Model the fold of this input.
Amino acid sequence: MLIGILQCGHFPDELQSESGDYGALYQSFLDGQGFDFAVYPVVDGVFPPGPEACDGWLISGSKFGAYEDLPWIPPLEDLIRAIRDAGRPLVGICFGHQIIAQALGGKVEKSPGGWNVGPQTYHFAEGDAELTAWHQDQVTQVPPGARVLASSDHCANAALAYGDRIYSIQPHPEFNAREIAGLIRTRGGALPDDLKAQATARMHTPLANRAEADKIAAHFRKVHA
Done:
């Protein structure tokens, strides 16, 4: 099964020697699931020819806002709707979660509560899961027909499903302590000191990354079948 990664940003240059760019991060996250991958850096204007180019699609995180006036965002929204209409499985993570919601009629805004950084507890129907957050924006209005699958104390709409073919989450299950420490070091200037201290103190909290990878892989396989 070929998974197309729609890369919406670049991981900081200083961190790529250890973690790789976003395309590599998601391939490592889904390693061992039996997938092949094609990376399309849409942030640089590189798009696939259409939704049929891959069997399933994953939209990455980004430092940009879904609501920003950037030339690659409208064609990405068009592609999201085309993937939906073609019935291909789609997964969105962080920015990916937000841009899917925006493309399908929801709203994305900066959270009045400010940044969410580091391990957070997310409440799913099947139980709580610790996953890593790195965001200030969030989905504040759920698109028509979408179902809320998870929330946290600081993010009401932390996971969404659209029918049985689209699944998206606000946290970053591809991030471990190394990535958060690196982001605090390279992009933490805008964060309050107390928030950085809290995130650092919880840095090595056991995470549900593997369970989330299994869930996403099962989603791709189920829809593709």
In short: The CA atoms of residues 64 and 70 lie 9 Å apart. The two ends are 10 Å apart (CA to CA).
